Amino acid sequence: MFNPLQGWRSEPAPFHQGYSAFVNGKWKKLDSPTKTIVDGSNTPTRFSVWSWNIDFKLDVPVARMRAALNHVRSLVASQGGIPCIIMFNEMVASDLELIGDDEWVRETYNVTDLTGEHWNYPNFPPGFGYGTCILVPKVFPIKAVFRVYYPNSSMQRDALFVDIAIPRDKVLRICTTHLESLVARPPKRPAQLATAAKILHQAHAGILAGDLNAIERFDWTLHQENKLKDAYLETGGKPGDEAGMTWGLMGRSYDRQRYGLSRMDKVLFCGKTAVLDYGTFGLDVEVEDEVDRQKLMASWGLQKGWVTDHLGVRAEFQIEEVE
User: Cis omega (within 30 of 0) on the bond before 122?
Assistant: First the structure.
């Protein structure tokens, strides 16, 4: 049971899963934590984080993920060489296969997940359901990759962490999480974010991004209760402002009329790091084939052949006190 003042009676233990690197023409699974000393003396201290939820339930998943990945690639290419950490929520097995087959990914990134074997579906075969994945630029030396499964989740949700070695033997800890959807009584998201935040605070700098399903009023202050900063608010965004909304702009008209707009997706951070910039991306990105567009519009009542119902969120950071 979760006590908001004390945490879980028994804190969920991290599950180390390793990651994959494309070496000599094939993906190679590497252990976590690493068995050798990881040198972070040359790790870039300025970088950006990009997070996007790609709706798992819509039709033509391969076409949608291909268009989404192509869009992300074009955005990363415009960043002037700044390393970009990419986080995806609601990945399905075909999404991970496409990521693993992509030449740009193979050349540029190490990947936490190429199958769904570490997603928390204990009573189903590997790869069932949907989950999270992080693409880590190869310039970042990885010390560890691990998940923490939320004990109170009825939707198999977890937090995926990557520890990156940075100068002066410090650690940058990044996390993507997809908090519990919908309304629950008692609420489940406060306990889940508290678990992830506690782990983030243990590093020199911590950054968390993902679909936080911030659909209720209490969600607005969860970052403050966990001593986290909100990149959107820190860069001048206003609570409740339509300019900050990430869900409801690309979906069925019925859903928008019933639920309105919301800022479900966020970038939160703590420790010795400063946010330099924040924004959203992915508005009106559609599948590339007209037949696929028409199928999405006809089957789901969409106005366009959108790849997902969420905007992505991005933020640029500078790590401090490592010189």
Answer: no
